[in-house]
Amino acid sequence: MKKLILSLVTMASLAFAANAVTNMCVKTTDGKIITVDVEKVVEVYYEEASSTADNQGVTVTGRVGDYNYVDLGLPSGTMWATYNVGATKPAEYGDYFAWGETKPKEYYSDSTYKWCKDTGEKDGWGYRIYKYTKYCADSEYGTVDNKTVLEAEDDAATANWGSAWRMPTAEEIDELIDACNWKWMDNYYATGIAGRLGTSVYNGATIFLPAAGYRYTDLYAAGGGDYWSSSLYEYGSYRASHLKFGEYFIDSDDDHRDDGRSVRAVLR
Asked: Given its phi and psi angles, is residue 65 left (phi above 0), alpha (psi -120 to 50 degrees) or beta?
């Protein structure tokens, strides 16, 4: 809930006009002074801090647009969202996306995958053969364009949360895994949701990844986590890299692009 300080804005505007003020300064209780160019100030307001129930125990460093992020002190400087795309808090599953698609759907397969084309041929087992029309580095799998990282228009985080956000690369997922001490939780903050709580070895900040499983038609493997990266798998264009975890492990992996998996965004 926001409470606009209309009187403050009015008085400040008059003061700026009368004295040609160029900066607004806020002095905090620890003696620090925060300075902002008044030409960049659109409005001034108080905002109530999010409750523990809303954040469910994870660290919230800041907010960009309508979405929270956490600074885990990572060497790369990467800032991770505190909940999944399609969710509103850490202990919600959110939406599921095929790799390179930006909308959830009911059925995930080669036949419904945006970047697959039916060749009209069948393999030795009688299954239809599909070829990829984008993001392909090997002619065995489709039309070669050597695109190995999702473009913004095909990035589920960017498409749903705006240009400030994107899906993480495979390297950023590896960094996240290595940067945290991970604890399995069967019932995270009494939400009924299982998942892994990561505590940064750099600054002690926390992040939670719900074990949201993945989708074909129904939900599969809830009790484990599958999170897409933006990176095509290096050794096969029919797969993409992702973060995978269960009760006893957390690691990077790769799997079929047409599967519906979770997306956890990072800031650009």
From this structure: left
- 63 three-class SS: strand
- The token duo for 215 is 């989708």
- Closest of 266, 265, 259, 267 to residue 99, by C-alpha: 259
Give 188's Cβ-side CA count (13 Å radius): 28
Q: Return d(Cα 258, Cα 224) in angstroms, integer.
A: 18
pTM score, whole prediction: 0.80
Q: Which residues pair with 118 in a beta bridge?
A: 130
Read off the pLDDT of residues 155-214 as tens digits, 9 standing for 90 and up.
999 999 999 999 999 999 999 999 999 999 999 999 999 999 999 999 999 999 999 999
Do 16 and 36 touch, CB atoms closer than 8 A? Answer: no
Domains of the chain, by residue range, sit at 2-47, 56-106+145-267
Residues 6+ apart with CB under 8 A from 89: 54, 55, 56, 83
Q: What is the DSSP string of 200-262?
A: ETTT--EEEEE---EESSSEE-BTBEEEEEEEEPTT-TTEEEEEEE-SS-EEEEEEETTSBBB
DSSP structure class, residue 133: S
Instruction: Find residue 256's DSSP bridge partners.
Output: 239
Is 208:198 a contact under the CB 8 Å cutoff?
yes
Amino acid present at 4: L
